[in-house]
Amino acid sequence: MSNFLEYQNWRYATKKFDANKKISAADLTFLKEAMRLAASSYGLQPYKILFIETSELRAKLQPAAWGQSQVVDASHLIVFANFTNIGETEINHAVSNMEAQRNLPAGSMKGYADFIASKITSLTIEQKNTWTAKQTYIALANLLAAAAELKIDVTPMEGFEPEQFNSILGLDALHLNAAVVAAIGYRHQDDASQHYKKVRKSNDDLFINL
User: What pTM did the predictor assign?
Assistant: First the structure.
């Protein structure tokens, strides 16, 4: 039987990481593949995922993340950055990749590309950016589940200033926006949060059957 629920009960939003413990290359490869395989609307994956490893860069980011220690102490810092003002260029690139990987003739999926464009290009820039930002959370969910299986801790973080992250990381020039951040690594033995009972709504309070 699956151990999925056991892993989910084990994980929590780590407050203090052990700065001396680093994630192995093999485990990083596994986590990246889990995120790469995440579902996304139309299969577009309208985002980039940045792995921030250098201590100097993370030190610059920490003040823009409300001074949170996880930014500098975790093994790695991951920034999920959504496309801004997505348009036909990004759509055509994604569809061309689908054709190539499925060994289809170039242009054979033009009808699908046109359909996607008809739905997306009619949106306002704000609507586009909200939509692409939401897509990053699906990849984040895959990270949470995959990391728990490896007993790697993850702290999802919305407590940061996106504009400052964008400036420090040069995301504006790449038409990207920092949507959500995740610190990954290993919990410190002194992190009291790991001993807290996990609290969630009861089934009766959470689910509605119609």
Answer: 0.96
